[in-house]
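Below is a filled-in request sheet from our internal design queue. Each sheet records the structural input a requester submitted and the sequence that came back. We keep these sheets so that new team members can see what a complete request looks like end to end.

REQUESTER: design group, bay 2
PRIORITY: normal
MODE: inverse folding
CHAIN LENGTH: 457
BACKBONE (tokenized):
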């Protein structure tokens, strides 16, 4: 434990959805859901307007649509999220040389290495306020919630207390006073299964947990988990902020509010993460041979499984297929709180995939729609050659540009027609126009890449 509140945790609020609302004036103040848009899709992020209807991350898109049918459902724009994240991480590194990103939208900052006159509570509070204002300016209006405390654990807990757009500084010596009334689930690694075990012995709050001896916790939960919970219950956490090292892999991972138990849902999430990793590889002209999945179980046990290809790849179908195969060997029946996919063994060239291209598992595809019935109600058999995509590859939320109308985003597509709303972050709410998907005047617009290479979130 540090003597001063010198660990800062910053978390961008509803990050993906906030970027979409920033760049799409017509969606500001309205419910927005980012993730898979098809029947088997999964919610990645929901705006606070959508959360008011019970929509949350890792929920199936089908359930989200039932709860909030009037929300805007967007497929996501990773380039825009990554560029915004790079701006924020650059700002943090300008404040302190010790910045530890946890994902695109959150990071720890070591204020002991920042250029501050002292680490008094008033000083770090003023610094954090200025930092939040700087983030808002650097990102074009996005808000961040910040916690400052004497340890990583308490700083992260503090950043969640007044979301969105909140700031909580925990004065040294008051950490246990803050934690005692809280439910035990605020502790990392305490998922539904652990909560139930603790409930059976009358433990609901951290104050209750403090009454349980360390030996008893070890007997109940295992050595590593028992010791960890006992330490964190008393706010003991001496982990240091670790500066980012040279990138040796590209990875994407997500932590979920509720433990995942549905294998199909996990496979769908891995497929989407594999697509994000592959896009980042291609964007930077790189490929990799080793595919790794990271699975953190309900009890905070973290498992990593890898497979190595005979040649480098940047193909999302290959990465996704290997990731799903690796998951098959793991027992996830108790619940999973974190999933991740990474590619390492990076190279700056790509050889054609030696295995050929199998069709992706149709159950993992959250874009394609089933064949439409004919007028008699019977399913139309597939032709010998696959038909052209009736959406033209245009997905809701995608950035586009038109020779006459300028930049906009895809409002919807299908049956050979794409509908676009022409507006950007710098314009007022724009008009809506429809075009044939093959209109040569309409093309995708690529977000300018950030200056730095991708890093492991």
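RETURNED SEQUENCE:
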């Amino acid at each position: 434990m540090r003597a001063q509140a010198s660990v800062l945790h910053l978390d961008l609020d509803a990050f993906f959805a906030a970027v979409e609302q920033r760049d799409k004036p017509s969606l500001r103040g309205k419910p927005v859901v980012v993730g898979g848009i098809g029947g088997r899709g999964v919610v990645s992020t929901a705006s606070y307007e959508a959360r008011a209807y019970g929509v949350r991350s890792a929920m199936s898109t089908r359930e989200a649509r039932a709860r909030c049918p009037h929300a805007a459902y967007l497929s996501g724009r990773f380039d825009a999220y990554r560029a915004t994240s790079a701006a924020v991480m650059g700002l943090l590194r300008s404040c302190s040389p010790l910045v530890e990103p946890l994902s695109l939208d959150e990071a720890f900052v070591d204020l002991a290495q920042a250029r501050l006159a002292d680490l008094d509570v008033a000083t770090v509070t003023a610094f954090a306020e200025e930092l939040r204002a700087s983030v808002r300016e650097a990102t074009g209006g996005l808000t961040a919630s910040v916690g400052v405390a004497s340890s990583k654990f308490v700083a992260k807990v503090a950043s969640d207390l007044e979301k969105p757009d909140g700031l909580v500084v925990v004065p040294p010596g008051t950490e246990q006073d803050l934690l005692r009334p809280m439910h035990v689930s605020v502790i990392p690694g305490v998922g539904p299964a652990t909560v139930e075990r603790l409930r059976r012995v009358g433990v609901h709050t951290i104050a209750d947990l403090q009454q349980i001896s360390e030996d008893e916790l070890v007997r109940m939960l295992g050595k590593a988990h028992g010791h960890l919970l006992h330490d964190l219950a008393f706010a003991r956490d001496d982990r240091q902020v670790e500066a980012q090292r040279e990138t040796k892999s590209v990875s994407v991972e997500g932590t979920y509010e509720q433990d995942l138990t549905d294998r199909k849902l996990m496979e769908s999430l891995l497929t989407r993460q594999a697509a994000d990793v592959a896009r980042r590889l291609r964007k930077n002209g790189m490929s990799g041979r080793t595919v790794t999945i990271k699975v953190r179980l309900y009890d905070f046990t973290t498992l990593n499984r890898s497979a190595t290809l005979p040649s480098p790849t940047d193909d999302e179908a290959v990465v996704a297929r290997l990731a799903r195969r690796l998951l098959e060997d793991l027992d996830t029946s108790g619940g999973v709180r974190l999933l991740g996919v990474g590619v390492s063994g990076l190279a700056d060239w790509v050889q054609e995939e030696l295995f050929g291209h199998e069709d992706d598992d149709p159950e993992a595809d959250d874009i394609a729609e089933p064949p439409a019935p004919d007028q008699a109600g019977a399913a139309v058999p597939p032709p010998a050659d696959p038909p052209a995509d009736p959406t033209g590859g245009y997905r809701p939320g995608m950035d586009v540009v038109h020779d006459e109308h300028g930049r906009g985003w895809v409002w919807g597509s299908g049956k050979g027609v794409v509908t676009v709303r022409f507006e950007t972050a710098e314009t007022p709410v724009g008009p809506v126009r429809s075009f044939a998907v093959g209109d040569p005047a309409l093309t995708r617009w690529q977000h300018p890449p950030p200056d730095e290479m991708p890093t492991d979130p």
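SHEET NOTES:
- The chain is about 30% helix and 25% strand.
- The first helix runs from residue 15 to 23.
FILED BY: M.R.
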